[in-house]
Amino acid sequence: MLTRLLLIPVLIVIACCAAGAYGMLHNQVSYSVSPEYFTQFKFIQFEIDPTLPNRLGAAIVGWHGAWWMGMVISYLLIPLGLIIRGDANYFWGMLRVFCVVAFTAIAFGLVALCYAFVAVDATIAGEIVIYGNQVKDDVGFERVGFVHDLGYIGGYAGMATGALAIIWERRRSIEPIVESRA
Length: 182
Fold this sequence. Notes:
Keywords: Membrane, Transmembrane, Transmembrane helix. By secondary structure, the protein is mainly alpha-helical.
């Protein structure tokens, strides 16, 4: 049990890094849809240095906007994961659980992106002025905003699929290993 307790901070760091990396990549896709979402809104909100390349700025915003979800996910899933038997099973099982969470968030993000392209048009977006800046591509801006909002829901849904993955890992960790005789 002591080994598992020592693994908890390591797993928290891994979860935060994975969530931050997800945010960085997510924002690269989002930047492709609406650069103005970043240049007119997020760069100002996160005080991004205007001399940085825009894609690097989007990655920094993504990191800052998502790393903390790793803490939220860790708070629920790491203690729940303690039901997995064996220290090595616990560590590697939790890494697989984090992958399940990430794939769930990615799936939600892709569905949100597809829906945004179908559902958001000029009549829905209207004219957007933010921080005194007139947005030229209101539709793209609104689409990215929609995808970003649903991205957090994807993270929370990932916690549910992660919990199911922990139950699967628990069952897997107690099944006897059957050697095949060839």
